[in-house]
Design goal:
This protein has 6 helices and 16 strands. Helices cover about 20% and strands about 25% of the residues. The protein is globular and about 55 Å long. Bound molecules: 2-oxoglutaric acid.
């Protein structure tokens, strides 16, 4: 069953993204938020089941403290850079988390949203042309003061053999607006193909490669979703509000679109002149 109109499919293909409000119920949203909180309560400073990696003393985006589960493959969560978690104040940590990864089996609500949701699964199937296969799960919880995620294409972080057969989904768990860091897109820019990425405070497309006057904020109510092409350049600004902006992000591919090695991907994901464009191939900004 296709839950999209022909116009919506066309808009996705032309713009590179499609936002739909009211995809998930308030109960589903609340259950997901509670389940994220439960992960923090379970694993933060609990050395029997988690490893603690203190924050690194740099201003790069991925420098926050990490709590890595020992009993769930790949699951970890990380605080916003600049925050020092205190074992005596475990209750505060949840409010400073920037991201979770590989948490899709941590609670039944995540498994439902990711693998069997009756509304999203048919849409993914329509947009991908075949059954979706999850290959990355993240939750992005930009806390108050949380910094920008600069412009990038998610395919720069991946290495699947067919970058066209990659779709991201971004699900708002709080109302997302410009002030607290909603998603921004450049309509149609996915059709430019791979754009070179550089390492700055993050892995990003340098702003002079993009016409940022064409950027469109995509505010979303809690329970809404954005489907976006793996080549769609996107960004989220800092959170200038005093409210968190929590979101789930899942990436899907087709079954045959497996990961390839670095050398092969450099020959697939490159600029028109052949320059490899992925984050793995990125140079520091000053080189
Ligand atoms: O949710 C955010 O702040 C940005 C998410 C994003 O663009 C990403 O992780 O690829």
């Amino acid at each position: 069953m296709n839950m999209l109109t022909d116009e919506q499919v066309k808009a996705y293909r032309e713009q590179g993204y499609l936002a739909l409000d009211d995809m998930f119920t308030a109960e589903e949203v609340n259950e997901a938020k509670d389940a994220l909180r439960a992960i923090v309560d379970t694993y933060a400073f609990n050395p029997e089941i988690s490893e603690y990696v203190p924050p690194r003393n740099t201003n790069v985006n991925q420098a926050g403290a990490i709590f890595r589960a020992k009993d769930q493959a790949g699951l970890f969560f990380q605080t916003e850079s600049g925050y020092q978690p205190d074992p005596a104040r475990k209750d505060e940590i949840d409010g400073h988390i920037r991201k979770f990864m590989h948490f899709e089996h941590a609670a039944p609500i995540f498994e439902k949203i990711v693998f069997s949701h009756p509304r999203t699964q048919p849409i993914l199937r329509t947009l991908l042309g075949e059954a979706p296969v999850l290959f990355q799960s993240m939750a992005l919880l930009k806390p108050p003061g949380g910094v920008e995620k600069p412009w990038h294409q998610d395919n720069a972080y991946f290495s699947t053999g067919n970058p066209d057969a990659v779709i991201g989904t971004w699900i708002a768990l709080d109302d997302a607006a410009v002030e607290n860091g909603c998603m921004h897109f450049l309509p149609g820019a996915h059709r430019r193909g791979p754009l070179r990425h550089h390492h700055t405070s993050d892995c990003e497309i340098l702003p002079d490669r993009l016409d940022l006057s064409l950027a469109v904020p995509v505010p979303l109510r809690a329970g809404g979703i954005i489907f976006f092409h793996g080549n769609a350049p996107h960004q989220t600004p800092p959170n200038h509000s005093n409210q968190r902006r929590r979101a789930l992000q899942f990436h899907y591919r087709t079954a045959g679109n497996a990961t390839v090695d670095r050398q092969t991907y450099d020959q697939i994901f490159h600029e028109p002149d052949g320059t490899p464009a992925s984050c793995a191939a990125a140079l520091p900004n000053n080189l």
